[in-house]
Each structure stands twice: as C-alpha cells, then as structure tokens.
C-alpha cells in the first residue's frame, strides 16, 4: 500500500508554502496546493483530511465567479487564495471597510449632534427670530429623539416662534437614492442628506374597510405614531407596477395597486425628501407640546444662532456595531460621508466622491490597490473589491483588536445546513447579500485557538443583469443561488478549521 504523508507533514508543507507569498503571486485562477487523499482502507485522523476547495466549489453548483482568501492572523501569512485579486461586488461586506474608515477619521467615541438653534434671543417665551432644526448627520435620529427635542423647548418655556421654521440638511450632500438602480419602493435605498429620520423611511399602513382600504402614512416608533403630511399614498386599479413614485406638489407621492394589497398590512417605504420629513414630524410633535410652528422650509446654508436644545447620538462604536449587525445602508452612507468630511475639512461633493475618497484611503492605509467603491454600503453592484485587498485590511486592522468585537457572530452549520450548538470553530464576520451576489468576511477561531482572517466573494453578474424589475425584490431563483453560496461559505469555514487549526 502506498505510504501517505502524515497530517503534520501536510500542514508543514502548507505553512512553508504560505511563507513565500511571491511564489503564489501568479497562481492560476482555480489551483491550490494539493492535499493528499487517503485510501478507502485508511482510517483515523489521516482519513479526515479536508476535501480540496475546488471540489467543494464544483459541487456547490454556483454559477458566476467565486473568490476567497484566508490568512493566519498571528503571522499574517496567506494560507489559501483563489481568484483573490479579481474584483467582485462586495455587497454589504463593504461595510467592514466603512467601519475602519470611520473609526480612523472620527474615533470610536464620536457622537453626532442634532440641534435646535435660534437666530434671536427668547424673551418671555417668544422667539422673534427663526427656529432651526439643524441636522448633524446622525443616522440614528428617530421620532422619539425629535419628541425629546420638542419637550426641551417646552421645558425652557418657549411658547411662540415669530420667524421661520427652517430645517438645515447641509452637513452632508443630498442624494435621491443610495442606488438609483434599485426598485423605487425599497426602504433600504432611501434618500440621503445631512438629516435623517427613522432611517429615512415612512410607514405605509393599509386596513380593509369593506370593499375599500383605509391607508395612512406615519413616522411610527414604539412611543409615537405621528401622521405625515409630506408623503401621500393613492390606491389605483392596475396590475403592475405595484408601486410608483413621483414628486407631486412638493410631496413624496406614491401610488399602489389596490389588487396587490390583500388583507391588512404595512411596509416601510423610502423617503426622498429627508429635510421635509424631519420638519413635518417635528412640527407635529412641537404642536403636541403647545408650540405652533409655521410650515418647515429646507435650507442648505446654516445661519448663525444660539443652541436651544440638543440631541446626541450613541457613541460611534455602538452605531457601527448595530450597522454591522443589521446591515443598515443609510447608516453606512452617512457615517462614511461624515468620515470624509472630517478628513477633508468640508462635506464631500457627492456620495460617489466620498466613496472614492474612502477607496484612496484604503489604498494608502492597507494597500488595497484593486478596490474601487461607488458607495459606503455595498448596495451598488458597480463597486468592486478583491478578496486579497480586504484580507490584508483585516489582518492589519485586527492588530488593534478594535474590529472583531464589532462584528456579529455567524452561526456555524453542519453539512445538512443545521446550526451546530457546539461548533469546533467560532466566526465573527460581516455578511453581504444582493441578488446573485453573496459575500462573507471577518475572523474565525479554530478548535486549537488558531485565529484566521478570511474573505469569500461570489457573484453571477450576468444573471443579475438579466433580472426583471419584478424579480429585483426577490425570486426563487435568486434565493436558491444565494442559498448555495452561503452553504459553500460554511464548507470553506469547516475546511479551514480542520486544515489550519486542528
């Protein structure tokens, strides 16, 4: 019988190869160092050598392109890399880079401020000047926060405003949508400006009333449910499209197919006029506290004034942890643009200009030469990031230990897709999902304590480009593809845990 090398010899050879990265610089797209296969008569640890990753990929049935890379976190040595220099749409895995960018520019303790300013003194409860709701780029601002600001005005005795009520949104540039190519009704691609409320989403609710429906648009939270005047919904008798949007009389004007509503229900819709939205809701809340304000006006120029009330956000580290957990796109864009403004001393010209600034920073800070971002969230499928670039950033960034605690734990699954209660490896990472795009990047700890950094990108851009508008909200074909991609990710993680950390 042929004498196979022992597991220790195999791992030793792999480690030696990883220590010479120059030899792997021009590795073929789907070729790795060979792993000896045990014979069927063999048993014990040698018989459990992990399957080759090419075989795992072939068996996954994934179409399109897949790339991955994994490194030993202690030594920084790349242990395995396939297509690692090929640019791929990173989807929400891009938020890892945004997190590093924001921490570098702002610091983990940074807090956003939303203020109420007065252009004249308040005398005997009367403000003879203007009242300004000044946004500070806070992506977490909620209806509850505006209610707290309104209460602060009541507590200080303000009863009347004789000037204008202005909403300043000039802290950040305005964008109609994070990604204009997304279906217009999707709440995860709202408008952006220097002020946001409820992640720039408005709640559309419908209730059956005989043969018709009663509809409402509100800015609900657990504490409040103020109706919104700047957004309206009209029911129409048609098949498709289910939703349409237009700017009608200065309002966010929506129509919906009545036949598509079914029973009672509701959904969040994107807001396209963030300053109008925040001003509308604050005016309603102020009225509840006895302060009647004129209709809000949006301004991009901030007049000077005295601070009457202020709301500060949680510290940036907490905001970033929630962003990575829930993958909120608006948070990524507003945090990213605030970081650019801090680095450059002025707001960026546009969302894309800010993303390009982050791209340059990644190249300078981490050597990310093959990355080109179009946003901070990864929502645009025009963004490109390569596995090797992000892997290098992960290895360098984790020297401070600040990143991994912000990432969410990823459940580890067995070969049948079931979550393992006591897995041999632990994973903290960021997922990324678009139609026909799936990514995962972060850190894992193997059974023996070995810590690895890894990145996995898969994308079938041709299939994505062929999708109809109706399919972009989700289809069985895209869910099937993305499910295969996630299972492949799990198999790679299991392989790495067995091969590099047993």
Automatic annotation (TrEMBL):
Task: State the top-level EC class.
Answer: hydrolase
Q: What is its EC number?
A: 3.4.16.4
Query: Any keyword Repressor?
Result: no
Q: Where is this region: Disordered?
A: 29-53
The UniProt entry, under InterPro entries, shows:
Beta-lactam/transpept-like (IPR012338), Peptidase_S13 (IPR000667), TAT_signal (IPR006311)
Q: Which SUPFAM superfamilies match?
A: beta-lactamase/transpeptidase-like
What is this protein identified as?
Answer: D-alanyl-D-alanine carboxypeptidase/D-alanyl-D-alanine-endopeptidase
State the organism of origin: Seohaeicola nanhaiensis
